[in-house]
């Protein structure tokens, strides 16, 4: 299926009313530098998790775009705003990114929030709750506009899906409570 054919049939909400196997999938790892393409080329900055962090995902899921929640875990003294360290909606690409000809599988998470500060090296926790669409091959830079359009649709679909009560409750999952954003200053 070409990206154009796929786009013509895109639903605004996907998946069942509550997560079904293999979801939820819990991920955790320190954010590492990726290729720097998401923010620069596509207007959609992503955080890359290390290879060993994505094993729970890559062993049970197909390549494509997923949705769920994520949180950046920082010491309270690091100058992040309170809203920067909340549990927030996310979309994640798991794949080879054929447009860029990657040589290894990557997991790139876009947290739907405008961060003013980079968070490389900080821990990120995520819970993946559902599948949006397969990975598509955007064959040329001229088609990158289609990729940007699909990313924007993916974000809207993710937000629509996460509005369902059985998904929304995962924003309060204990996965996000462990060691989160503790105040390390002396009292």
From TrEMBL:
<dbReference type="GO" id="GO:0005524">
    <property type="term" value="F:ATP binding"/>
</dbReference>
<dbReference type="GO" id="GO:0009231">
    <property type="term" value="P:riboflavin biosynthetic process"/>
</dbReference>
<keyword id="KW-0067">ATP-binding</keyword>
<protein>
    <recommendedName>
        <fullName>Riboflavin kinase</fullName>
        <ecNumber>2.7.1.26</ecNumber>
    </recommendedName>
</protein>
<dbReference type="InterPro" id="IPR023465">
    <property type="entry name" value="Riboflavin_kinase_dom_sf"/>
</dbReference>
<keyword id="KW-0285">Flavoprotein</keyword>
<keyword id="KW-0418">Kinase</keyword>
<dbReference type="Pfam" id="PF01687">
    <property type="entry name" value="Flavokinase"/>
</dbReference>
<keyword id="KW-0808">Transferase</keyword>
<dbReference type="InterPro" id="IPR023468">
    <property type="entry name" value="Riboflavin_kinase"/>
</dbReference>
<comment type="function">
    <text>Catalyzes the phosphorylation of riboflavin (vitamin B2) to form flavin mononucleotide (FMN) coenzyme.</text>
</comment>
<keyword id="KW-0288">FMN</keyword>
<dbReference type="GO" id="GO:0005739">
    <property type="term" value="C:mitochondrion"/>
</dbReference>
<comment type="pathway">
    <text>Cofactor biosynthesis; FMN biosynthesis; FMN from riboflavin (ATP route): step 1/1.</text>
</comment>
<comment type="similarity">
    <text>Belongs to the flavokinase family.</text>
</comment>
<dbReference type="InterPro" id="IPR015865">
    <property type="entry name" value="Riboflavin_kinase_bac/euk"/>
</dbReference>
<keyword id="KW-0547">Nucleotide-binding</keyword>
<dbReference type="GO" id="GO:0009398">
    <property type="term" value="P:FMN biosynthetic process"/>
</dbReference>
<dbReference type="GO" id="GO:0008531">
    <property type="term" value="F:riboflavin kinase activity"/>
</dbReference>
<feature type="domain" description="Riboflavin kinase">
    <location>
        <begin position="20"/>
        <end position="163"/>
    </location>
</feature>
């Amino acid at each position: 299926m070409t990206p154009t054919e796929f786009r013509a049939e895109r639903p605004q909400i996907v998946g069942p009313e509550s997560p079904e196997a293999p979801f939820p999938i819990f991920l955790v790892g320190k954010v590492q530098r990726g290729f720097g393409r998401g923010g620069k080329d596509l207007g959609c900055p992503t955080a890359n998790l290390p290879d060993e962090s994505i094993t729970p995902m890559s062993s049970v899921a197909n390549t494509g775009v997923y949705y769920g929640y994520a949180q950046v875990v920082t010491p309270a003294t690091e100058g992040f705003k309170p809203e920067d360290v909340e549990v927030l909606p996310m979309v994640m690409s798991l794949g080879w990114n054929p447009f860029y000809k990657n040589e290894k599988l990557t997991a790139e998470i876009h947290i739907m929030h405008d961060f003013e500060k980079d968070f490389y090296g900080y821990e990120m926790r995520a819970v993946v709750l559902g599948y949006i669409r397969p990975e598509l091959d955007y064959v040329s830079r001229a088609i990158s506009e289609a990729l940007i359009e699909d990313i924007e649709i993916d974000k809207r679909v993710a937000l629509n899906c996460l509005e369902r009560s059985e998904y929304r409750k995962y924003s309060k999952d204990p996965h996000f409570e462990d060691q989160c954003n503790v105040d390390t200053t002396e009292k």
